[in-house]
Write a structure and sequence with these properties.
226 residues; alpha/beta; four-stranded antiparallel β-sheet; three-stranded parallel β-sheet; 8 helices; 9 strands
């Protein structure tokens, strides 16, 4: 049962209308009612079958205005790359010692970057990091020798988008307290990246629907111009 505040917010949204992105962001900010600084989220329903490898949609994009939170970045690297990671601003750096800490239950980080030679150790953490979306992967640039660039991009607002098993992508693009234009720019950059990532094997309508909304607020349908 929706609460009074949610219902009041939902009443301000025309449920059948597809809003221009800018108008939708303005409305989402206006109807946000939580006592905390909510995240503005973009949800896209795609016409793909993610069970088929050639229709998987995933990637990363650096949001130009960041996410409004300082990500704690862990780098698992050999000694020659460890200092490079620290100089770039990594919050935690280690090798076998860090892997053992994670096995022991330590999870005080928001992103993990690893050098290729460390993946033999990191592979053992799949059951811990995988379900949390933290497993380093070459496709998302988190398994790399250029650890400095990876750390800097992650700190700057790099986000990963990935279609789930129902064909939906769901990704935060900033805080409600952001200026409207910055939220619109972040959202558009994400949408453009997803459009560009359209698999050649995908048939029919690629974007079936798209919505923006805050953490607690109602969804607002938007027009997506492919």
């Amino acid at each position: 049962m929706a609460g009074k505040k949610f219902r009041a917010a939902a009443e301000k949204v025309e449920s059948q209308r597809r809003y221009a992105l800018h108008d939708a962001v303005v409305l989402a900010k206006e109807v946000a009612f939580a006592k905390f600084d909510e995240t503005l989220e973009v949800t896209m329903v795609l016409g793909v079958d993610p069970r088929k490898a050639d229709q998987m949609v995933r990637g990363t994009v650096v949001l130009p205005n960041g996410l409004g939170k300082n990500k704690r970045v862990l780098v698992i690297a050999s000694a020659d790359k460890a200092q490079e990671a620290r100089d770039a601003g990594a919050d935690e750096v280690g090798a076998e010692d860090v892997v053992e800490r994670i096995k022991g239950g330590w999870l005080d980080f928001d992103a993990v970057i690893a050098t290729p030679d460390m993946m033999r150790l990191v592979g053992a953490l799949g059951k811990v990091l995988g379900p949390r979306g933290l497993m380093p992967n070459p496709k998302t640039g988190t398994v790399t020798l250029d650890v400095a660039k990876a750390v800097e991009e992650t700190k700057a607002g790099k986000v990963e988008y990935r279609v789930d098993k129902t064909g939906v992508i769901h990704c935060g693009v900033g805080k409600v307290s952001f200026e409207t234009d910055k939220l619109v720019e972040n959202a558009q950059v994400l949408i453009d990246a997803v459009l560009k990532a359209k698999p050649s094997a995908a048939k029919g309508k690629y974007v079936k629907g798209a919505v923006v909304g805050t953490t607690m607020g109602p969804g607002i349908k938007i027009e997506v111009v492919a």
